[in-house]
Design a protein that fits this description.
By secondary structure, the chain is of the alpha+beta class. The chain has 2 domains: 66 residues, Arc Repressor Mutant, subunit A (Orthogonal Bundle), CATH 1.10.10; 168 residues, GAF domain (Beta-Lactamase), CATH 3.30.450.40. The chain contains 9 helices and 10 strands. It has a 6-stranded antiparallel β-sheet with strand order 7-5-4-10-9-8, sandwiched between helices. Helix 1 crosses helix 3 and helix 2 packs across helix 3. The longest helix has 23 residues.
Length: 294
């Protein structure tokens, strides 16, 4: 997304050993225990669905909206929200809308903090932004989509801005195509089958053959190009970060309006992103991803 804020701004996004008791033979379930377990599982599933729905809702949602979205009776939805609120996973606003609580944020952030990805990527995002004068992003793959988890916004009034946690299609975004290009062909096919090749603009690649050719070119260059494929007026270049097996689990990108990020600048910016991604890969103990089946 491109935004034009009133004032320029920059944003950045930061085992104990337990002795086990001897195993005991499980007791036979008593009458009613199976039903109770089933009820607990259902309540857990509904609570998680509530959290996911709230996370995807801008500014929160009312009890009525949540109950309708999940096809739950209002009293049931309210009981679940009250339990989650008591644990700190949701909170009720003054307007009556529910929103994600700080404990849910801490839980969701644990994945990144454990791998230390953001801590390693942030200085490289800042350096990329300074070198290119465009917004630098970090994204990971989750459930067949690219998810933005860190960003260093440039100082220009007109700039790319992605809300942290925002999602982008793999086949129509720079970060997504960078990670696809670093996958074996079979993994690409399996990943794309989950979401399909939806058209977002007139430039979106919606055929498997066209996308395969584009990914082959990205693999050869070491960086992908999103040429107004997800949003008109937005262009970006991206390169994948490899894990210890050489598989892609994140990508760095530079993105900006086509008026500044012109075709003439793409090669130079692509080399910057490629170098930063390789540097981040090595800092995390990973291997540069190759992709393809050859």
């Amino acid at each position: 997304m491109l935004e034009c804020p009133r004032m320029p701004a920059r944003s950045r996004t930061a085992a104990k050993v337990v002795r086990r008791a001897p195993a005991r033979r499980p007791a036979s379930p008593r009458a009613g225990e199976n039903g109770k377990a089933t009820g607990h599982t259902q309540a857990l599933s509904r609570g998680l669905a509530l959290l996911e729905t709230l996370a995807a809702t801008e500014g929160g949602a009312t009890l009525t909206v949540l109950a309708e979205a999940l096809a739950l009776p209002a009293p049931t939805a309210h009981r679940l929200l009250a339990t989650l609120e008591q644990a700190g996973y949701v909170e009720a606003g003054a307007s009556g809308a529910w929103r994600i609580g700080v404990r849910a944020f801490r839980t969701g952030s644990a994945f990144l903090s454990h791998r230390n990805l953001v801590a390693q990527a942030l200085p490289r995002l800042e350096r990329l932004m300074e070198q290119a004068g465009e917004t630098a992003n970090l994204a990971v793959i989750e459930d067949g989509e690219a998810v933005f988890v860190a960003q260093a916004q440039c100082r220009e009034l007109m700039r790319m801005s992605a809300k942290l946690g925002a999602r982008a299609p793999l086949h129509a975004s720079g970060v997504g195509k960078a990670m696809l290009a670093a996958m074996p062909d079979a993994a690409v096919a399996a990943t794309l089958s989950r979401r399909g090749l939806h058209r977002y603009t007139e430039h979106t690649l919606t055929s498997r053959d066209a996308l395969a050719a584009d990914l082959a070119a990205a693999r050869k260059r070491g960086y992908s190009i999103d040429d107004e494929e997800h949003a008109l007026g937005l262009r970006c270049v991206a390169s994948a970060i490899g894990d210890e097996m050489g598989q892609p689990w994140a990508a760095l990108s530079l993105a900006g309006p086509t008026s500044r990020l012109t075709p003439e600048r793409v090669a130079a910016l692509g080399r910057l992103v490629r170098a930063a991604a390789l540097d981040c890969t090595q800092a995390l103990g990973g291997r540069a991803p190759r992709g393809g089946d050859d």
